[in-house]
From TrEMBL:
Organism: Zhihengliuella alba
Alphabetical list of InterPro entries matching this protein: AAA+_ATPase, ABC_transporter-like_ATP-bd, FeS-cluster_ATPase_SufC, P-loop_NTPase
Keyword set includes ATP-binding: yes
Name recorded for this polypeptide: Fe-S cluster assembly ATPase SufC
Superkingdom as given in the UniProt entry: Bacteria
Family per similarity comment: Belongs to the ABC transporter superfamily. Ycf16 family.
Residue ranges occupied by any ABC transporter domain in the UniProt entry: 4-249
Swiss-Prot/TrEMBL keywords: ATP-binding, Nucleotide-binding
Gene name, Swiss-Prot/TrEMBL: sufC
CDD domains: ABC_FeS_Assembly (cd03217)
The keyword Amino-acid biosynthesis is annotated on this UniProt entry: no
Length: 251
């Protein structure tokens, strides 16, 4: 079992108006096999948390820590984070001209594992994962993300997640812009990875819709850069009925 520990994390960004603190002390522990949903109103800092875990240079950690099995994630470069077992959807390139999906996936898998996957298994794994995610076979020969629709990009993101077999995945608004069929395919992919590979998931979302397909073990409500309340799946149901008003008054 592995553990991702976020401890009293404070994060700022530099803006033209000066330094702005966005995360104001976030503490959260995720174990492999667990699914945590982070929910909250727009602007509460959810994406900032995802970007900080991903190592985006814009976000300055002013105090606190992120540890993966005791190793300091904040000291790791972006590639090292992937090799350590973190999957952060946004670290992958938006478009890679001249690089086919097949080559990209194999190169990335080799970099993450430190060795090339056996060709026989790999070809089979890619084919199976593409079928599971209802990705058309000709995508393999297309250039990475070039001309992909929003829904296709999301499926390809989950394809990478299935193939790279991370310990932890951070999925930020993976549900946005998906129709119900695509949402179901993407959710099935996340659920499969959680079950088969014991992946831990940090599922960040504004809406409760995706939580009908991906059942969280824990729900954290994010308000103004902090976790304002934590609970089980029933908290998501409550938010679906009541919205975030109660938290906004408190904040
Ligand atoms: P959420 O994902 O919950 O909607 P964000 O993390 O995107 O929240 O944003 C939190 C706050 O930080 C917002 O007020 C947003 O305007 C601000 N913010 C985040 N990233 C930047 C940035 N790169 N430049 C300026 N402001 C930012
Ligand atoms: Mg936002
Ligand atoms: Mg966001």
């Amino acid at each position: 079992m592995s553990t991702l520990e976020i401890k009293d994390l404070h994060v700022s960004i530099d803006t033209e108006q000066g330094t702005k603190e966005i995360l104001k002390g976030v503490t959260l522990t995720i174990k492999t096999g667990e699914t945590h949903a982070i929910m909250g109103p727009n602007g509460s800092g959810k994406s900032t948390l995802a970007s900080t875990i991903a190592g985006h240079p814009r976000y300055n950690v002013t105090s606190g820590s992120i540890l993966l099995d005791g190793e300091d994630v904040l000291e790791m470069g972006v590639d090292e984070r992937a090799r350590a077992g973190l999957f952060l959807a946004m670290q992958y390139p938006v478009e890679v001209p001249g690089v086919t999906m097949t080559n990209f996936l194999r190169t990335a898998k080799t970099a993450i594992d430190g060795e090339a996957p056996s060709l026989r298994h790999w070809t089979k794994d890619v084919k199976a994962a593409m079928e599971n995610l209802k990705i058309d076979a000709d995508f393999a020969n297309r250039n990475v993300n070039e001309g992909f629709s929003g829904g296709e990009k999301k499926r390809v993101e989950i394809l990478q997640m299935e193939l790279f077999k991370p310990k932890f995945a951070v999925l930020d608004e993976t549900d946005s812009g998906l129709d119900v069929d695509a949402l179901k395919v993407v959710s099935d992919g996340v659920n499969r990875a959680a079950e088969q590979n014991e992946m831990g998931t940090l599922l960040i979302t504004h809406y409760t819709r995706i939580l009908r397909y991906i059942k969280p073990d824990f729900v954290h409500v994010f308000v103004d850069g902090r976790i304002a309340e934590q609970g089980g799946p029933e908290l998501a149901d409550q938010l679906e009925d009541e919205g975030y008003d109660r938290f906004l008054v408190k904040a």
